Amino acid sequence: MVKRGAFIVFEGLDRSGKSTQVARLVESLNQSGEKAVGCRFPDRTTTTGKMIDSYLAQKSELDDHAIHLLFSANRWERSQAILADLEAGTTVVCDRYAFSGIAFSAVKGLSYTWCQSPDIGLPLPDLVLFLELAPAAAALRGGFGNERYETSEVQIAVKDMFERIGSDVGSERWKVLDAGRDVDAVEKDVRGRVEELLKKVEGPVGKLWA
Ligand code: T5A
Ligand code: NA
């Protein structure tokens, strides 16, 4: 039987460096002979993804519950492909996941447990790397754009919500990394934690919030 791949998720505020680190990790794993692929949520290429993209670009309005469910559906659409990769021995490195889903919806006033429910049963990440960066430092990395949620108020509230989510996930699985260091230092820290994980990944992929 092939050893299954690891499911690794990066979370963090906007501009904390998630996309940069996902790309670097996938490349370095592949270079060292580990099969790895990247993925990201929202996946703006699918039908639900196009609706989400229009909402984030503030070209359309949607009820807060409706957009929350679309983000979740966007993950479910991809979930079988993620499981198939993991079972085939490929490590999946994902840029945002259900934790962003809760954080951004709950700060709008939706119930925390309601926000969790549509994601119950999704593939459970083996490791969540939370890139921690002060909102003020994130804002310095090229000013806020025009997308929804790109304001200091939202980012500060989201950071607090992520702390609650991290404690619910538990410190075994949820690791907070200082994302204020230079890109190479963060990458080295990430690589060290992933090497630890790859030694111990075993058993079936878990189910989120189950
Ligand atoms: N959302 C998402 C929901 O509401 N519900 C959901 O369920 C989900 C999944 C999506 C938006 O949707 C919300 C959350 C978001 O508001 P997105 O497409 O993921 O947004 O885009 P962002 O996360 O906003 O992506 P960013 O590109 O802003 O942030 P990243 O990926 O964290 O940062 P990255 O790597 O692109 O880097 C940003 C800049 O900083 C530099 C990079 O070169 C780049 O210029 N940088 C560093 N500079 C200094 N030091 C470092 N260590 C650096 N690392 C990167
Ligand atoms: Na990004």
TrEMBL record:
Domain called Thymidylate kinase-like: residue spans: 10-189
PANTHER family: THYMIDYLATE KINASE (PTHR10344)
Annotated Pfam families: Thymidylate_kin
Pathway: Pyrimidine metabolism; dTTP biosynthesis
Alphabetized GO MF terms: ATP binding; dTMP kinase activity; nucleoside diphosphate kinase activity
CC terms in the record's Gene Ontology section: cytosol; nucleus
Keywords for the protein's UniProt record, in alphabetical order: ATP-binding, Kinase, Nucleotide biosynthesis, Nucleotide-binding, Transferase
Biological process terms in GO annotation: dTDP biosynthetic process; dTTP biosynthetic process; dUDP biosynthetic process
Record flagged with keyword Magnesium: no
Protein name: Thymidylate kinase
InterPro entries found in the cross-reference section: P-loop_NTPase, Thymidylate_kin-like_dom, Thymidylate_kin_CS, Thymidylate_kinase
